[in-house]
Amino acid sequence: MRISVIIPAFRAEGSIGAAVGSVLAQGREDVEVIVVDDASPDGTAEAARAAGASVLPGRVRVEVLPTGGGASRARTAGARLARGQILVFLDADDVQLPGFLDTVAATVTGEVEAVVVGRRVRTEGGTRTEASRRLGRMSGEEAARAVMREQITPFPWDKAFRRSLLRLDGPGTAEDLFPADVHRFEDLAGVLVLLSRARQVQVLDLPLIEYRVHAGSLTWGRVPTRRERDLALAHVRHGLDAELLAASRRDLATLHVLMTVLIAQSAALAGEGEESSAMLHACRADLRWRHLLATLAASPVTAAAAVLLRLSPRVFASIAQWRTRTRYR
């Protein structure tokens, strides 16, 4: 088995069939699909089994977790079951586009141990294509620092990893793939650490994933906590090589600022109640000017957003709401 596609799923009865079908429709015989149902109360598992049986019987494994633990634990559970030499994560409400698996198989060879692709973003208002701002081949350490600077996307679903990067077969444990009890920044933290282990990473602009944005998406549905941010940052610090960690202090400060801005953005999107206002002001208080100066050199856009939040949470919230309406809805 060359490639394992792991799909964590919760309340995905209406979308899991399309996700599974998009993998199987590419026609590769060396691919397995592992759907991990995170104790969904609906018919997610049955829909996944039906999608597999209708295309290629026996190629889809559905694992139902007895209790819900979130996407981090579902991805870890799927990784432990995977037999492939290349692992891919796909969200249950997104789809792979034709050519994704062939591109992955052709790219993850030799020194290249991870690949990042572009995406097609589908919203209620239409579609557009996007890609990471930094393209080409680079070392894993360079890729990790690029993630901290928002130059490479933080998502797991637009990437593929050689199995060895996940350390599933050695003395390490799959429990460390993504930080547990973190439901917004777990993907960024996990991806950053995995990329840092690669000898070489190839970043492409080919749009080979369709990311589907809807009102019920987790990104829009809840405000992450500052504790989740701190747990994600702790996962990064624990997972990075000591030498890279020492060389990345400015980038880690940038990452802290970025996560804080994202929390504030989610609070702004949640409305104008007392809880949202309190979170905005708490995030504002977390931003130190020395961190903003470090961020300015690494990621000017993030620094500008953070300075605006520091100076006027109200104006920051208004701009965040406007940007989301025009970009994602």
From TrEMBL:
The lineage's top-level taxon is Bacteria
Q: Which organism is it from?
A: Brachybacterium hainanense
Gene3D superfamilies for the chain: Spore Coat Polysaccharide Biosynthesis Protein SpsA, Chain A (3.90.550.10)
Task: List membrane-spanning regions.
Answer: 291-311
Q: Is-annotated flag, keyword Transmembrane helix?
A: yes
Question: Would the keyword Metal-binding be found if you checked this record's keyword annotation?
Answer: no
Which segments constitute the Glycosyltransferase 2-like domain? Answer: 4-166
Identify the keywords attached in UniProt to this record, alphabetized: Membrane, Transmembrane, Transmembrane helix
What name appears for this protein in its UniProt entry?
Glycosyltransferase family 2 protein
- Fetch the InterPro entries from UniProt: Glyco_trans_2-like, Nucleotide-diphossugar_trans
